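I hope you will forgive my troubling you with a question about protein structure. Could you please explain, in whatever detail you think fit, how the structure tokens follow from the sequence? Thank you for your consideration; the sequence and its tokens are set out here.
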Amino acid sequence: MESSAKAGKRHTGRTLLHERRTSEGRWAQLKKNRFLYLLLTPALLLTLIFKYGPMYGAIIAFKDFSPIRGIWNSDWVGLKHFEKFLTSPNFETIFMNTLKLSAYGLICGFPIPILLALMLNQIRRRGIKKNIQLFLYAPNFVSVIVIAGMLFIFLSPTGPINQIVSWITGAPLMFMTDPEYFRWVYILSDIWATAGWASIIYVAALANVDPELHNAASLDGASLLRRIWHIDLPTIKPIMAIVFILAAGGIMSIGFEKAYLLQTSMNLPASEIIATYVYKIGLQSGDYAYSAAVGLFNSLINVVLLIGVNLIVKKLNDNQGLY
């Protein structure tokens, strides 16, 4: 009994000593890199003030909010607004529109930057490569409003696209008013605007690939596709996993501006998403508590998706994920 008690005391003493050394090591590291941590201070302050600070306002989703009475003095209503949204006749349409637009965009748009980066990596002449990169990156700097205006001009019944379609089929297609075409107009235009810029991170990762690996593989008779499959793709695989997790985690956070700008009264059955619904209910109708509940519901779904997709990717990617 005495020997077991002594062994327990020794184990406790070793644990405390280890924790003390770890704490001292962390403090020494913090002191050593104090100037680097000091550089993080402005970013941390901005994040706390403008990201975490306003989060207290989310409690209006659980209140019968009145601007006159204020947030704290408004009456609690619990999950009333959430139940109202989940049982509303528009819930299924709005939820599925958001999910389909985001999911289709992720499925169609995720591989494009990777393919662009792999193709750019095969261009050896720097001048040609820079010109192509400039051409691919330029759409990212075009305003969303300009892109929406371009789509309305080019896809109008008398626009250049429909002139070609009318010449082939004899009748124009109602791209901007038919709900069936809205999703593809949105997704394809989004890929055109963002794919080139999104490929930068993959191009940067591929720049670290040792050229000797490709030379050795070529000498062994490996084709271009095999070299890409066994050398380039494994290099960018961790980045692909992180980008996919973040994209899938934000699958319900589709941009408001472009969807709202492309909306018409005719394509509303396909273009009304949670973001535009929150804007109309909250700012136009003044029902702030209900719109806050819808927005919070959307954010909770994103958190669940982020955690779930991260767990799945970690299992499929040798335990490598976002965290």
Remarks:
- The first strand starts at residue 63 and ends at 66.
- The chain has 17 helices and two strands.
